[in-house]
Amino acid sequence: MLDKKMELALNNQLEKEAFSSYSYLAMAVWCDQKSMEGCSQFFYRQAEEEHMHMMKILAYLIERNGQPIIPSIKKPKSDYKSIYDIFNQTFAQEKEVTQSIHDLINETQKLNDHSTQNFLQWYVSEQREEEAVVMKILDKIQLIGEGPMCLYYIDKEVEAINKQIVSTEAKA
Question: How many structural domains are present in the chain?
Fold first, then answer.
């Protein structure tokens, strides 16, 4: 059975994953409205992935006889200054989730909860990969620039990165 403190912490993480999913959905819509199909597809995939992260936590809570709490989600931001702004906020959001996962791991150690610690290791690896991808995109944007002509190339670079991720996931 899951410790009540860990149950609460996992429910808080469930809410963070749900918010991330909605946030990425809003970013995808913004990109769609700017005709940046490569970027919009990246964020639609990210939204699905974050939803899957949430569902994994929900399933784990049920498996451990915990009580999942379906969160109400605050409205995500939907207006952005630029594509760099979106990816910069994405990076900040991913870093926040990473810190939250690390805090959960620290709590499992305090509670001597090896099962939950083992469960969370997947998230540690996942967050490392997600931060690395967003950093790579931010580097590409800085390299290409952000002028109107540059947006086409940024979109193509993000599309290529997204295809590479999808291809790697299909092989796993």
Answer: 1
Which amino acid, 18?
Answer: A
What is the tens place of the pLDDT at every residue in 82-127? 999 999 999 999 999 999 999 999 999 999 999 999 999 999 999 9
Q: What's the domain range around 63?
A: 4-171
CA nearest to 2, candidates 127, 126, 123, 120: 120
Tokens linked to 90 = 């994405």
Give dist(CA 20, CA 49) in Å, integer: 10
Which structure tokens are listed for 20? Answer: 């991330």
> Which residues, other chains included, contact 20 with Cβ-Cβ below 8 Å and sequence gap of 6+?
46, 50, 53, 93, 97
The residue ranges of DSSP E strands in the chain, in sequence order, are: none
Q: What is the pTM of this model?
A: 0.93
